[in-house]
Amino acid sequence: MKLGEIRVKEFLDRTGGEVRGRLVSDAKDRAYSADYTYTEDTDGLLHITRTGSRSTVVMKPVIDLDEALVCFFGFYSGDGAKGGERPDNPGIVRPPLSISQSEPNLIRFSVEQFRKVFESSIHFSFSLGEDSAYFMADEGLRALEAHYGGALPPAEPLNRVRPTLDAKDRQYLAERRPVAGANETHLAFYYQHKDAMAEILAARKREDIDRAGIALTASDSVTASLRRPFKKGARQPGGSSRADETHVGGVTGFGELFLKMLHEAESSIQANTQESTQGLIVWSDVPSEVGELINVQDFFTRHPYGTIGGERPRFTAATLPTGGAATGRIIGRWPRSQNIEVATEIRIDPLWCYTAGLYLAEGSTSKADILAMPRRRLSSPALGFTSSENISLELLLRTLQKLFRPEDCVTAWKVKVGSQYFPELVVIGLKNAVPMLRGGASGDGKMRTVEISVAIKDWALGVAPCMIPYAERYSHVEPTGAGVARIDMWASPTLCRWYFPLLLYATFGATVTDPATELC
Amino acid sequence: MLPEHEAWLTSWLEELETNIEAGDIAASLCLQGAISEIALHGSLNTDWLGVMDEFLMRDGKPIAYSEQYGKRLYQFAQWIQTEVHAIHARRWIERASEHAESLDYPALIEELIQPSGWIYNPAVSPTGLRTRMKSEYLMSLAMGVEILSPSPILDRNREQFEATLSAEPVTGYLSAEYFRQHALAILNATNLAPATIEAVISSCEVGEGYCDFDVKAKIDDYMGTAKRVGRDIPVHSALSSLHALSLSSLCDEATQERVRARLGSFAEHLRANPLDIQPFKMRDIDIPFGTGLSPLEIVAASGIVVRL
After folding, report:
1. What is the Cα–Cα distance from B157 to B303, expressed in whole angstroms?
2. What would the pLDDT profile of B114-167 be if each residue is shown by its tens digit?
3. Do B131 and A442 touch (CB under 8 A)?
């Protein structure tokens, strides 16, 4: 269903091709900036060139915004590359177009949406990165043995497989790691089996792409990227640190324009305005009035998306205290789950779509679990979301509140703090006359020092004012391995059985008729 | 005391009294309340022991939090904690009240001595030493040794404590090194202090005074640390500055003079800007990340202004 338009030509005319915006992510507030010119061909298509660059992309002057594309903006907001800082000016980012994703259905989805925006100008490079320590034991070793016909060839010394070391090799050998074995042996393993390991990974990635039904063009490529053992994140032989990337080629210099579309869509959804600030996005009506209206009971009773592993919920309006459906809510219950009040009607509006993508990218539930839900039960039903930005949290809460009572949307919330901010937490403790006591055997449990958790609460409510209605449910600070301090909220598992089917429908409803058989 | 410091502490104590009436109290607040009153009036005004007896004792042992204080966090079931700092706070207040010791404090601490020589309560925080905070276990050891001194328990464990303190590599944190110094001083073993404290002190020079840590040395579990912390700005702390001053006594004359001079100019700054003790900020987020001013910071700032 068409929800609105991206008015590319009008926007470029109005701004003189100047794209400016701010990117707030990971607690960094940076700017992006690019200038574009365009020509129009006889078919009315725009050939857009970035000033100072020779690359040109072809785009429609007006791109239709449907549910999937809005979902994709949310998805990219979570999992997309935001860009590195310019070395000469750290306040400015250069955003590439790339997305980190390993789930095959979501890769296909991303490819389809990128093509909607950039037409035929683009090609894709699918890469699978892995620490070569993965091939030293267990599943990885078995794959490597199979590649050699059943057994590894005898181990070769480093000076034979790598007669001349480069700077990175020498740096690797000089580093110290808390793992068994010598760096020399590990590096020799890497060079002896590098090609074999790369072939295995590339084949695996190709299988994923085939399974997802992505049709590769001649200019698309599949590559593997091997790291020296224990370099990327594996802590023991056989350990994996897999990273999947989908890079978009042919659009160098157009990340700024894409980010502008995303940010104009996001801000107009947040403000519920029909037209975005600079007019790049124009919805068909105010966003909350656009989109398919779903009868919730009907959806979960009959719709192909309204089932989890073949099961469906039951509804009973009789126990509602103030007159059942007249209140706009109805009581439902999934097998083995609890009664919960849900809205009788839901509009799959831009807000719903955007947060569906955002949750798929950043929600705490396994993506594979959500995607497999139409054909099998959720293995660990859970609904949780982590962000350091108010807008993401606010949009998700507003979405959940459309379907559930506000008091059911947040069970509790905490602040996760990565280890680079532990020194600050220690000082906060000292100022309050207490040490920083960690919980759990490895220290990543609930912070035991209440004073520190209490001291961070005001920061969290300042960063995310949308959590103020849930201030009383603030639970604790949780030290974690890395990352900026961020707010982590979670809700009852009862909610996810209702939310996830509607989330999937918003994302795939237009292209996948029967999710139980068509999603891989 | 500067009028601004006096007003700040007075206001803080008034607010605390309201919380005490609601049973919303922690051992750390009692300790800070007592220190604030001594700084303001030279003696205790509040019946802190009465507060602790009513809200901060459980099964004959001091605890860190009242039940109501624990409720500041949602469903925080771990509020009953007999930690070293809670035991230390009660004993400190008893001494400040010139009250006879009501508990066998050395025995309470002896229960918490670990085979590694450190002193902490694994029932409260079961975290292994590798991931405990250095400042935390050195603070707990210093408090524990202080409570044990003088007692036969300390004599029995002296070599153990000295070995533990000597074997701990230089931490890079002013507070951790200060607590090590304090513990070694009680053990009459400052000769066992690390030889490279000067480098720690100089790396923690920040703003007008000192910060507990060197922001450039912060690390996390992944690569690219410099990039990750590049936007974090360290802030000076009066408390950390006094830690630096104390640690300078372990250094040569030139270092001692440099630290004294720096604190002298910090004193000038505080006379002109009495409340300029800022909280941290995380990257570009312009919202205080935790506590800035606290009673301990005010008392420390006041000490710097009066004595340096």
Report:
1. 34
2. 999 999 999 999 999 989 999 999 999 999 999 999 899 999 999 999 999 999
3. yes
The Cα-based distances of A151 to A162, A173, A193, A238 in angstroms read 22, 27, 13, 16
What residue ranges do the domains of chain B occupy? 195-308
Q: How far is A435 from chain B (nearest CA, A)?
A: 5
Q: A434, A436, A476: best mutation site toward chain B, by most B Cβ within 10 Å?
A: A434
Residue B256 gets which letter from DSSP? H
Cβ contact A441–B133 (<8 Å): no
Helix axes A493-508, A350-362, angle to 10 degrees: 110
CA distance A54 to A90: 25
Instruction: List, for residues A229-281, the tens digit of each pLDDT value.
Output: 988 667 789 988 888 888 888 888 999 999 999 999 999 999 999 999 999 99
ipTM over the 0.90 cut-off? yes
Q: Write the single-letter amino acid at A215.
A: A
Global pTM? 0.89
The nearest alpha carbon in chain A to B142 belongs to: A435
**Angle A316-A318-A319 (CA atoms, 0-180°, nearest 5)?**
95
Instruction: List strand residue ranges (DSSP E) for B120-232, in order.
Output: 205-206, 209-210
Give the C-alpha separation, B48 to A458, whole Å.
28
Q: How many residues does chain B have?
A: 308
Per residue in B28-69, pLDDT (tens digit) is: 999 999 999 999 999 999 999 999 999 999 999 999 999 999
Chain B hits for A424, Cβ within 8 Å: 280, 282, 289-290
Does the CB of A439 have a partner CB in chain B at under 8 Å? yes
Preceding omega of B150 cis (within 30 degrees of 0): yes
Q: Which B positions 154-193 lie with beta carbon below 8 A of chain A?
A: 173, 175
